[in-house]
Amino acid sequence: MLNNEKMQQEILVRLSSVFSDIFGFEGTITLDTSPDDIEEWDSLGHVYLVAEIEDVFSVSLGEKMMEVETVADIVDLIMNELSKGKCVLNEGSVS
């Protein structure tokens, strides 16, 4: 099992790829990154973001994603799902 810091880093790496794919964002994604930092991260972009995150991490986040204000919130949601064994990371389930 990965420790929390390594899981967080792996999630950030994957999220960077998601943000690049969805928004064309080539900057650095940090825990503090928010919709204010990425012009394309509007309400429609958020819908695409949720769908891609759910696909990449094999998880259903549903309405919880509507409360997201920063990348840290997304990481927390994914880590919570990982702790329940309901999420996939590194080509397999981490629990």
Q: What can you tell me about this protein's structure?
A:
- This protein is mostly helical.
- It has a single domain, classed as Orthogonal Bundle (Non-ribosomal Peptide Synthetase Peptidyl Carrier Protein, Chain A), CATH 1.10.1200.10.
- Helices cover 51% and strands 4% of the residues.
- The chain has 3 helices and 2 strands.
- The N and C termini lie close together (7 Å).
Q: Write the CATH architecture name.
A: Orthogonal Bundle
Strand arrangement within the widest β-sheet reads: 1-2
Number of folding domains? 1
The top level CATH class name: Mainly Alpha
First-last Cα distance:
7 Å
Query: Low-confidence parts, pLDDT < 50 over ≥5 residues?
Result: 91-95
Largest sheet: 2 strands, antiparallel
Q: Kindly state the number of beta strands.
A: 2
Report the mean per-residue pLDDT as an integer.
87
Described by the principal axes of the CA atoms, the overall outline is globular
**How would you classify the helix and strand content by structural class?**
mainly alpha
Q: How helical, in percent, are the residues?
A: 40-55%
CATH topology: Non-ribosomal Peptide Synthetase Peptidyl Carrier Protein, Chain A
Summarize the helix and strand pattern as letters: HHHEE
